């Protein structure tokens, strides 16, 4: 008892100490005494995740690899010659272009941006990224000390991306790098010829390195896929990033690459040597197998128009109008027409419908008031998720929309 009194008297001198009569201590006692309601939680419906950025995996991406003598060796930086040659052939078939001058294999597109940032950027170097844009670009480069500047872009009624020239002239002051995607993530817009010519002009005027993320290029319909439009005319100042995570739904394999002129690839290769981040032998074996087979993008393109049209109609029934889209695997929707913030709507759908979507805030400060929905998830789960949102809309935002799903699952049990 004496030791306990001494301890209580000692800790009471600190601000974090709370007596038994404070609100926080009373709440803690209530939480400890509350029973775990396992019966109600088990009756909740399965959560439908439509917020992801990757296509649905079609079967296993890896097979058991028999041990070989190469497993005991250090993987070469930048990938083996066999892997680089397979990526060259894959790029030539996918984009219909001749192989580039140089290539470095990396740990996914994330590893590609890490190597590019280490090779070309000093700390506090200004970098221009598109908004909305892939959050990985700004997070990886910002973590390496870059000063991120956001350029607002938006698709027109034809799904073609554009930007404000006055805004561009402001953000490129002193910029060392420009990052863009074709097609853009998350709105699926494509850069038209005029916008690309303006970007090329600005890159020459400000002597900027341009990094083009082509991870979703395989999801551009073949009839409008013109790789020469965005690949030529940069005058040796552009690098192109690709990944198997999107085209083959193989995020677990962690295979990406950087392509471009040899004088730009050389610094990236030297950085990869210093990092010692060689591609593991099992990942390389899986990549070689995937590169020789049709990817998820090829299968999705066959039904992309039908899926996009059907999902757009379902969302329009909820009072939401998706932005015009020509490519990609996403629908990008404003939420102000239903008078709801994107974070609040995403939270409501998660709690009331068990459907997860991506709020726009993570894609840039100009993207507030939007949500992103992944169309390349499992077709059955996509249909089920949109059905749940329809029930929620019919019941009203204030009504409990869990009842239909709970009662249905209880009847099935």
Q: Can you walk through the features of this model?
A:
The protein is an alpha/beta fold and 413 residues long. The chain folds into two domains: 45-51 and 295-412, Aspartate Aminotransferase, domain 1; 75-291, Type I PLP-dependent aspartate aminotransferase-like (Major domain) (Aspartate Aminotransferase, domain 2, 3-Layer(aba) Sandwich), CATH 3.40.640. Helix content is 43%, strand content 15%. It has 16 helices and 14 strands. β4 and β5 (160-163) form a beta hairpin. α4 packs parallel to α12 (281-291) and α5 (108-120) crosses α11 (262-275). The radius of gyration is 25 Å and the shape is globular.
Q: What would CATH call the architecture of the largest domain?
A: 3-Layer(aba) Sandwich
Oligomer classification = single chain
Principal-axes shape call: globular
Low-confidence stretches: 1-42, 59-65, 398-413
Question: If you consult CATH, what is the topology of the largest domain?
Answer: Aspartate Aminotransferase, domain 2
Radius of gyration: 25 Å
């Amino acid at each position: 008892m004496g030791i306990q009194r001494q301890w209580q008297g000692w800790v009471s001198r600190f601000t974090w100490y709370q007596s038994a009569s404070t609100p926080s201590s009373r709440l803690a006692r209530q939480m400890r005494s509350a029973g775990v309601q396992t019966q109600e939680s088990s009756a909740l419906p399965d959560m439908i995740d439509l917020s992801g950025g990757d296509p649905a995996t079609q079967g296993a991406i890896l097979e058991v690899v028999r041990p070989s003598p190469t497993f005991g060796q250090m993987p070469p930086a930048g990938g083996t010659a066999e892997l680089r040659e397979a990526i060259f052939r894959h790029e030539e078939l996918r984009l219909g272009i001749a192989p580039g001058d140089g290539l470095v294999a990396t740990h996914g597109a994330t590893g590609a941006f890490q190597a590019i940032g280490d090779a070309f950027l000093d700390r506090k170097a200004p970098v221009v990224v598109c908004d909305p844009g892939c959050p990985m670009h700004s997070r990886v480069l910002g973590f390496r000390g870059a000063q991120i500047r956001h350029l607002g872009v938006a698709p027109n009624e034809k799904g073609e991306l554009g930007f404000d020239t006055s805004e561009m002239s402001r953000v490129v002051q002193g910029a060392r790098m420009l990052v863009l995607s074709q097609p853009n993530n998350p709105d699926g817009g494509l850069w038209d010829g005029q916008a690309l010519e303006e970007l090329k002009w600005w890159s020459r005027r400000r002597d900027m390195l341009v990094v083009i993320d082509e991870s979703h290029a395989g999801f551009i319909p073949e009839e409008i896929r013109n790789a020469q439009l965005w690949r030529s005319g940069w005058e040796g100042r552009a690098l192109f990033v690709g990944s198997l995570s999107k085209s083959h739904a193989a995020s677990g394999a962690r295979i990406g690459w950087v392509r471009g002129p040899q004088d730009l690839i050389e610094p990236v290769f030297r950085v990869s040597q210093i990092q010692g981040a060689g591609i593991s032998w099992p990942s390389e074996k899986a990549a070689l197998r995937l590169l020789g087979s049709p990817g998820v993008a090829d299968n999705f393109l066959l039904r992309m128009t039908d899926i996009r049209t059907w999902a757009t109609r379902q969302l329009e029934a909820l009072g939401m109008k998706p932005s015009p889209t020509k490519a990609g695997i996403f629908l990008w929707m404003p939420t102000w027409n239903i008078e709801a913030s994107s974070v609040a709507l995403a939270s409501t759908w998660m709690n009331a419908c068990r459907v997860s979507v991506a709020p726009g805030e993570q894609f840039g400060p100009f993207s507030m008031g939007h949500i992103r929905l992944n169309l390349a998830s499992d077709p059955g789960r996509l249909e089920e998720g949109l059905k749940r949102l329809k029930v929620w809309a019919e019941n009203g935002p204030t009504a409990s929309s869990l009842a239909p799903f709970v009662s249905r699952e209880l009847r099935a049990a």
